[in-house]
Amino acid sequence: MTNYNMLASLLRIKETDLRLDCVLEADTSIDRGIHVGGAYSALPGMTALYYGGSAYFNVEDPTDPDQDVFVLSKGHAVAALAAVYADYGYIPKEALLGTRGWGALIKGHPGPVVPGVAVATGPLGHGISIACGYALARKRAGGRKVYCMVGDGELQEGSNWEGVMLAARQEPQQPVHHR
Which of 76, 99, 116, 169 suits a disulfide with 35, CB 3.0-4.6 Å? Predict the structure, then answer.
């Protein structure tokens, strides 16, 4: 088995574990549900990002400026983010229980009260524009990468296209090698 095939197999197993955590969230959430379609469609990309070995995130210091940034613009997929963050160590596994309720850490959309979440997002399509701003600032400072996941519904909003058009006008950056 090649290294690529082995990594792909391990990522599929990890994704299955994370899907089960999303089921746990749905079963114990205050409204007995999550946006399962958005969460499940987010898991393959998030699994590859967090467990594939190419991105760097600092769980011990979630505000570390020398780490990559992930913006979940499709905020309705917060259950997937919570499952990854509980497994990755940003939040305790118990935070997956009773989500979306009063006093719960995990609500219907991600917010910066959750360790590792840089910005609050939701269905309005502003996450990608914010990620473009982060990327532009990091490009000028020689910083690490910015990743953003968008959803098809939010692409109907105008604000994200402003960010995309801004990004398209930027000069390409030469690769920066870290560590």
Answer: 76
Residues 90 and 62 sit within 8 Å (Cβ to Cβ): yes
What is the token pair recorded at 111?
């917010």
Structural contact between residues 86 and 14, judged by C-beta atoms closer than 8 angstroms: no
How high does pLDDT run on average in the chain? 89
3-state SS class at 125: coil
Cα distance between residue 133 and residue 37, in whole Å: 28
Tens-digit pLDDT profile for residues 46-94 = 999 999 999 999 999 999 999 999 999 999 999 999 999 999 999 999 9
Q: How far is the C-alpha of 67 from the C-alpha of 144, rounded, in Å?
A: 6
How far is it, in rounded angstroms, from Cα 74 to Cα 149?
A: 7
**Going by C-beta distance under 8 Å and a sequence separation of 6 or more, which residues neighbour residue 20?**
none
Pick the closest to residue 117 from 71, 61, 151 (CA basis): 71
Query: CA 45 to CA 27: how far, in whole Å?
Result: 24
Q: What is the pLDDT of residues 17-37, one digit of tens each?
A: 999 999 888 889 988 878 888
Res. 145: pLDDT tops 90 = yes
* pTM reported for the whole predicted model: 0.88
